[in-house]
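Lab meeting, item 3. Inverse folding demo.
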């Protein structure tokens, strides 16, 4: 899993970036190898083994908030381990496992995802299969204790007109300007729901069950100084 945070000079001009590269050791191991690359220094500044818990993580969907990278755990095949969110503080080189809210009892058939809310808060999205409701929870920091969750919104698929939403396999948050939309799949079709005005749009049919959704934004641009790649000519000859 790769997460990148771009840094700017205060005027919105990108000058450097940090890259977090997370890879897991064999199954049933709690350890992940965590490497951090700093483009300004042009070196890997960290290479450590860290405990991110026993569950698999959705490494392909990191969420970056300031200097903290978040990943959500994937489905739990053990009744003894509840799902959670992992936070890794790049600056302090510290990890934290954050339990999900007790009110959001996640069953094995449910779906969870994480995203950024208004550019400043981590948002947990939990689709509860038995009620057809997608609950949105915001992570709040406290001064003298662990962070806690606050329920901010809920979307009932039944009230939106769905008759039998049997399978919601993916949920994402999309923010453009002042608009926050919840993007989700029902069976093989993708929908967008505007949280502010309650408008529901069908984005299209994906033609397969359990379709993945991959957020994309065209942000290709020069980033910092051009880095030189040194090639060993002797190795090329060999």
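The presenter then showed the designed sequence:
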């Amino acid at each position: 899993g790769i997460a990148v945070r771009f840094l700017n000079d205060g005027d919105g001009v990108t000058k450097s970036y940090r890259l977090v590269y997370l890879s897991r050791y064999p199954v049933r191991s709690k350890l992940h190898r965590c490497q951090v690359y700093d483009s300004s220094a042009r070196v890997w500044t960290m290479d450590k083994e860290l405990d991110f818990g026993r569950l698999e993580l959705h490494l392909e969907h990191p969420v970056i908030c300031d200097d903290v990278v978040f990943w959500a755990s994937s489905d739990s095949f053990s009744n003894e381990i509840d799902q959670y969110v992992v936070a890794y503080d790049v600056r302090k080189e510290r990890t934290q496992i954050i339990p999900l809210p007790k009110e959001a009892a996640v069953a094995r058939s449910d779906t969870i995802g994480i995203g950024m809310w208004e550019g400043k808060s981590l948002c947990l999205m939990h689709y509860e299969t038995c009620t057809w409701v997608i609950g949105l929870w915001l992570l709040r920091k406290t001064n003298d204790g662990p962070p806690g969750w606050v329920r901010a919104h809920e979307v009932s698929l039944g009230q939106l007109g769905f008759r039998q939403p049997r399978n919601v396999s993916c949920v994402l948050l999309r923010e453009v300007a002042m608009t926050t939309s919840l993007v989700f799949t029902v069976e093989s079709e993708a929908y967008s729901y505007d949280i502010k005005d309650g408008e529901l749009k069908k984005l299209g049919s994906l033609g397969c069950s359990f379709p993945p959704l991959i957020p994309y934004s065209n942000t290709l641009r020069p980033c910092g100084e051009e880095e030189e790649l040194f090639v060993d000519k002797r190795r090329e000859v060999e």
